[in-house]
């Protein structure tokens, strides 16, 4: 779970509760669902947050939620804004990143704490909604360092910057944390931030770039220019966000604007002008005014709230709870005449997708732990799945016959699954297959099926799903040679191999595997155990001689149950035994569980 | 009177006038000494014989001591060499004396440490002096050693014996010698004549069928003696826990689900209203397959409904995610990251046809996570998944169900911490009091499925669900600290053999 770092002194200052001690604050934060994880070296609280309330990614947002919780604030708050002076012109931007939004915030009295909080909210928004900047990337600039192009000759108060696409080699900038002029290609190749985010623009046909009259000052989503860097002395900020989706960048912008508003900044609108040259945007040729600090309204039925919480509430209570959640509610009726509320949801909320989310807010404001648990008055008949009953019956038989039951990993690597058991590893059948092409998938030998493989395994020991269970049992024997014998081990488990006749292209099989490892363990012992097991299920067992590379030739048989070949039994070849550093004979069998059905 | 054969033989070998040792009796009666001893005590109990005990101590030389008897104690050899080298007049280099003494290896250290202790001289800064007054011929330890070697140990001094014992040169053992004499009653009974009763060891088939068992006396066993340790077959400890949970859930009216481990992301995530660009669905966290890559078929109507929920949301006031949605991604195969894919398959009707409320379902099946392995996290674990489908379910029903479930495992005082899951609202992390330590611990995750999940699946009533890892429950219940010892191929058989059973 992600964490956010909050300075408790800032929180006291912003909530207006100077006298709250750390313990009280922690309790209040837990009430919001922000769990205290620890303290940083600077004495900040490290809080774990669930990634729905992204408006709580800053100390300002957390303080706002606390004030609602304390009852100091009620209902929706929307900051007032000044009219736009600045315009972002969108021309010829890369099709992969066509959307932009922006806002200006003036008159900030920034200090180190405020700057730190601003940096954190950017980072955390990048990590969450911004999907590591792929979906939305934030650039914050010192407005005084920007020189807007004058839009109208007679009105120098109307200024613009331009979001466009450029060739990676054509333009240069001095990036943040850099000290020389670099082309955008050089930024991606040699600058440390550029290298981190180079993948994001690798497939773009042109590089996203933002210009003012002086030149290029931002290279989203990679890095800003050094010229417009924000410091603790900055008072007026220009915020731009680019991304793959207008809604996402607008919402990220709202969260940042609310945080800066709480710092005493004055939000000023920015015109976003999608010119005719802007690519495939639904807003091409149209103007937007941003930030979009408009509440949305959703209707929630009174009965739905009562049903979901399981309590009776009167209208007054519901309105009160909704206001305490930082929203406004107006009683109304739905189309079919039932009581409902029109709920106004503030523009920083990104998690309200459906009226059910409002019920959750009502529940939180009410206090879920105030609800009395009750066992639902619902009658159903329980039961086990047939296959799980069969598995269990087989396991019981095997245990009764003296086997120790195992529960092994389903994941394994190719060497363990094939090579160390002497089974040839099948060639992967990747690539298109012509119709009627019946190339063999793996070998016929049990365990020789084509591997179901993992795309990006973390560990080289777990790269595929095992195609049979005997390799796992051999590994357990190998890891327990210091333990007392006999080691008669069995597993009723899972195995899988590629099978194109299945919808998932994977045949998933339950398998019954057993190995006897002790002085004198022989084919006859294994067969006796197999016979006892198969007899118990009233099936007919035959064991015609066969060959299998894991077993000693001449001491290997097919397991044939009710006339169908379902597995193999034999004495494990000394080569395989020695390979596993075992110094006692091993006799084993493995067959398909379905045969006992 | 009738007595077992061994007792008769001991009685007959004993005398009323003379104490005879058990060894002597055993020899005369042709019995093993332990048999004779047992018989003697039984006769003593019966008042026919009197057993008296005395203790003698015995001293034996160790191998090391035997060598010193031959060659002399190392410190004495060192002293002789030192005197030879003139160390009784002025200090001599230690190395020179040791060389001359012929001592080697451990014997050098032994010589040096005893040399000063017994006052043969001083060792200082690598030089050695010898006390001219010392008399090696009067060495108590050497004298005692010689006496013991000649079998005259009784004359050795007690302090010398203690020193030798400390040096590990002797082993002292105490022996109890038991002797018996016949009592008057014993004599009387012998005069009257005693018959031998036959005793038997093993009960044989022949004995049973012939009726011979009626006339025999059963030899007594030492019933307290340890028996051989056998390794019985037993069910895997974690499996036992799974069975226990299954019993509880079936008892609460839940029916078991099963389904594919390898499944399309559609069933694993899209049906759960997980946006395709959700961080948990990126290539690192998903257990994506290399071979094979994609499912062949998905139900077309369902795909449309799910895509629409993702894009537009459901209901008049619903809105979707502002995220891309791609059918190819939905068809991509992965090892399921949670068994909620089974729930999606069941709710949609894909698994066993359309379900009418009310229903309760559960599964205890493997889920997979592409991560590193450590003491509390495995790449594959058993997820306990359960859900209840009914009309008008409330948060209170959810709380009641889980309170009931966890109480079966001694976990009480359940707390519900509001939480966020993409596919449930409201959502709760469950905390409960640990039955042993009393701590509050996280025990699961729960919620009521969102309309954006249920509506495309064709469910028009409420469904509440919860999940937790079986391994977590196991570790809580058993105190196991490293899950790798329990689950998987790294398992320690000894752990499985010794783990207390779960029931």
From TrEMBL, chain A:
Residues 418-450 are annotated as: Disordered. GO terms for cellular component: phenylalanine-tRNA ligase complex. Its EC number is 6.1.1.20. InterPro entries: aa-tRNA-synth_II/BPL/LPL, B3/B4_tRNA-bd, DNA-bd_dom_put_sf, Phe-tRNA-ligase_IIc_bsu, Phe-tRNA-synth_IIc_bsu_arc_euk, Phe-tRNA_synthase-like_B3/B4, Phe_tRNA_ligase_beta2_arc, PheRS_beta_core. Mg(2+) binds at residues 351, 357, 360-361. Keywords: Aminoacyl-tRNA synthetase, ATP-binding, Cytoplasm, Ligase, Magnesium, Metal-binding, Nucleotide-binding, Protein biosynthesis. Its cofactor is Mg(2+). It catalyses: tRNA(Phe) + L-phenylalanine + ATP = L-phenylalanyl-tRNA(Phe) + AMP + diphosphate + H(+). GO terms for biological process: phenylalanyl-tRNA aminoacylation. Pfam families: B5 (PF03484), tRNA_synthFbeta (PF17759). Residues 293-373 form the B5 domain. It is an enzyme of class 6 (ligase). It is found in: Cytoplasm. Gene3D superfamilies: 3.30.56.10, Bira Bifunctional Protein, Domain 2 (3.30.930.10), Phenylalanyl-trna Synthetase, Chain B, domain 3 (3.50.40.10). It comes from the Archaea. GO terms for molecular function: ATP binding; magnesium ion binding; phenylalanine-tRNA ligase activity; RNA binding. Belongs to the phenylalanyl-tRNA synthetase beta subunit family. Type 2 subfamily. Tetramer of two alpha and two beta subunits. This is Phenylalanine--tRNA ligase beta subunit. It comes from Halorientalis persicus.
TrEMBL record, chain B:
Belongs to the class-II aminoacyl-tRNA synthetase family. Phe-tRNA synthetase alpha subunit type 2 subfamily. This is Phenylalanine--tRNA ligase alpha subunit. Residues 239-498 form the Aminoacyl-transfer RNA synthetases class-II family profile domain. PANTHER family: PHENYLALANINE--TRNA LIGASE ALPHA SUBUNIT, PHENYLALANYL-TRNA SYNTHETASE. GO terms for molecular function: ATP binding; magnesium ion binding; phenylalanine-tRNA ligase activity; tRNA binding. It is an enzyme of class 6 (ligase). Binds 2 magnesium ions per tetramer. Gene3D superfamilies: Bira Bifunctional Protein, Domain 2 (3.30.930.10), Winged helix-like DNA-binding domain superfamily/Winged helix DNA-binding domain (1.10.10.10). GO terms for biological process: phenylalanyl-tRNA aminoacylation. Its cofactor is Mg(2+).
């Amino acid at each position: 779970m992600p964490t956010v770092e909050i300075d408790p002194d800032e929180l006291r200052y912003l909530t207006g509760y100077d006298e709250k001690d750390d313990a009280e604050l922690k309790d209040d934060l837990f009430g919001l669902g922000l769990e205290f994880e620890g303290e940083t070296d600077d004495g900040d609280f490290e809080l774990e947050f669930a990634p729905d309330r992204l408006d709580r990614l800053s100390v300002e947002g957390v303080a706002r939620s606390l004030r609602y919780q304390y009852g100091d604030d009620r209902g929706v708050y929307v900051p007032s804004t000044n009219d736009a002076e600045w315009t972002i012109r969108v021309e010829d931007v890369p099709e992969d990143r066509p959307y932009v939004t922006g806002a200006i915030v003036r008159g900030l009295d920034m200090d180190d704490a405020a700057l730190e909080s601003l940096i954190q909210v950017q980072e955390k928004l990048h990590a969450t909604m911004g999907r590591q900047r792929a979906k939305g990337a934030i650039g914050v600039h010192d407005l005084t360092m920007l020189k807007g192009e004058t839009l109208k000759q007679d009105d120098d108060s109307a200024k613009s910057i331009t979001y466009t696409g450029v060739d990676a080699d054509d333009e240069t900038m001095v990036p943040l944390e850099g000290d020389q002029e670099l082309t955008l290609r050089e930024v991606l190749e040699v600058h440390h931030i550029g290298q981190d985010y180079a993948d994001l623009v690798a497939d773009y046909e042109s590089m996203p770039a933002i210009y003012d009259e002086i030149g290029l000052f931002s290279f989203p989503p990679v890095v800003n220019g050094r010229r417009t860097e924000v410091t603790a002395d900055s008072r007026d900020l220009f915020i731009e966000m680019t991304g793959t989706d207008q809604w996402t960048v607008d919402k990220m912008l709202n969260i940042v604007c609310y945080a800066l508003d709480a710092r005493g900044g004055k939000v000023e609108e920015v015109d976003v002008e999608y010119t005719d040259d802007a690519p495939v945007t639904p807003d091409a040729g149209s103007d937007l005014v941003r930030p979009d600090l408009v509440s949305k309204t959703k209707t929630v039925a009174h009965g739905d709230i009562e049903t979901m919480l399981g309590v009776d509430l009167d209208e007054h209570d519901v309105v009160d709870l909704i206001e305490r959640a930082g929203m406004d509610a107006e009683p109304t009726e739905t189309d079919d005449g039932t009581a409902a509320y029109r709920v106004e949801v503030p523009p920083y909320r990104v998690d309200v997708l459906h009226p059910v989310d409002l019920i959750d807010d009502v529940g939180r404001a009410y206090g879920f732990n105030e609800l009395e648990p009750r066992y639902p008055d619902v009658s159903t008949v329980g039961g086990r799945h047939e296959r799980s009953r069969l598995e269990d019956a087989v396991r019981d038989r095997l245990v009764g016959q003296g086997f120790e039951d195992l529960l092994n990993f389903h994941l394994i690597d190719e060497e363990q699954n094939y090579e160390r058991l002497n089974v040839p590893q099948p060639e992967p059948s990747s690539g298109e297959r012509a119709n009627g092409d019946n190339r063999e998938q793996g070998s016929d030998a049990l365990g020789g099926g084509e591997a179901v493989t993992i795309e990006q395994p973390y560990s080289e020991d777990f790269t595929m799903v095992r195609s049979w269970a005997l390799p796992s049992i051999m590994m357990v024997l190998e890891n327990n040679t210091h333990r007392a014998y006999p080691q008669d081990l069995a597993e009723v488990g899972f195995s899988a191999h590629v099978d194109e006749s299945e919808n998932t292209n994977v045949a998933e099989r339950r398998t019954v595997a057993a190995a006897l490892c002790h002085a004198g363990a022989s084919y006859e012992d294994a067969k006796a155990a197999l016979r006892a097991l198969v007899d118990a299920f009233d099936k007919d067992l035959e064991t015609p001689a066969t060959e299998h590379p894991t077993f000693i030739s001449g001491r290997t048989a097919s397991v044939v149950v009710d006339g169908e070949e379902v597995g193999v039994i034999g004495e494990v070849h000394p080569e395989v035994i020695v390979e596993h550093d075992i110094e006692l004979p091993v006799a084993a069998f493995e067959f398909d569980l379905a045969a006992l059905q | 009177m009738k007595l077992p054969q061994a007792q008769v033989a001991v009685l007959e070998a004993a005398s009323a006038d003379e104490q005879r040792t058990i060894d002597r009796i055993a020899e005369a009666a042709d019995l093993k000494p332990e048999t004779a001893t047992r018989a003697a005590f039984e006769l003593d109990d019966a008042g026919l014989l009197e057993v008296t005990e005395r203790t003698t101590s015995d001293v034996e030389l160790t191998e090391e001591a035997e060598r010193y008897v031959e060659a002399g104690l190392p410190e004495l050899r060192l002293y002789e060499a030192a005197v030879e080298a003139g160390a009784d007049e002025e200090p001599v280099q230690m190395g020179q004396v040791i060389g001359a003494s012929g001592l080697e290896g451990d014997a050098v250290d032994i010589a040096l440490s005893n040399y000063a202790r017994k006052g043969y001289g001083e060792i200082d800064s690598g030089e050695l002096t010898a006390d001219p007054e010392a008399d090696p011929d009067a060495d108590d330890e050497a004298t005692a050693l010689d006496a013991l070697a000649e079998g005259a140990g009784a004359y050795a001094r007690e302090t010398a014996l203690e020193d030798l014992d400390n040096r590990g040169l002797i082993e002292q053992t105490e022996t109890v010698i038991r002797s018996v004499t016949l009592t008057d009653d014993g004599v009387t009974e012998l005069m009257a004549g005693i018959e031998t009763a036959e005793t038997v060891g093993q009960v044989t088939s022949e004995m049973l069928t012939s009726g011979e068992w009626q006339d025999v006396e059963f030899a007594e066993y030492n019933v307290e003696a340890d028996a051989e340790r056998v390794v019985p077959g037993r069910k895997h400890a974690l499996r036992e826990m799974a069975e226990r949970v299954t019993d509880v859930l079936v008892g609460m009216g839940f029916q078991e689900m099963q389904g594919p481990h390898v499944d399309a992301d559609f069933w694993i995530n899209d049906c759960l209203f997980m946006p395709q660009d959700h961080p948990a669905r990126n290539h690192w966290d998903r257990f994506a397959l290399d071979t094979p890559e994609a499912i062949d078929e998905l139900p077309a109507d369902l795909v449309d409904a799910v895509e629409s929920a993702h894009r537009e949301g459901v209901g008049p006031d619903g809105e979707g995610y502002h995220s891309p949605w791609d059918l190819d991604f939905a068809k991509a195969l992965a090892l399921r990251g949670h068994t909620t894919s089974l729930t999606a398959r069941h709710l949609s009707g894909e698994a066993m046809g359309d379900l009418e409320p009310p229903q309760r379902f559960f599964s205890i099946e493997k889920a997979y996570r592409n991560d590193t392995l450590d003491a509390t996290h495995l790449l594959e674990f058993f997820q306990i998944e359960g859900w209840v489908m009914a009309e008008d379910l409330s948060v209170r029903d959810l709380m009641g169900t889980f309170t009931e479930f966890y109480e079966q495992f001694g976990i009480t005082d359940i707390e519900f911490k509001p939480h966020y899951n993409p596919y449930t609202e409201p959502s709760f992390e469950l905390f409960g009091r640990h039955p042993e330590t009393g701590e509050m611990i996280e025990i699961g995750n729960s919620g009521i499925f969102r309309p954006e999940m249920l509506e495309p699946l064709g469910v028009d009533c409420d469904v509440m669900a919860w999940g937790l890892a079986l391994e977590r429950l196991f570790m809580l219940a058993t105190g196991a600290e490293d899950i790798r010892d329990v689950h998987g191929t790294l398992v320690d058989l000894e752990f499985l053999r010794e783990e207390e059973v779960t029931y």
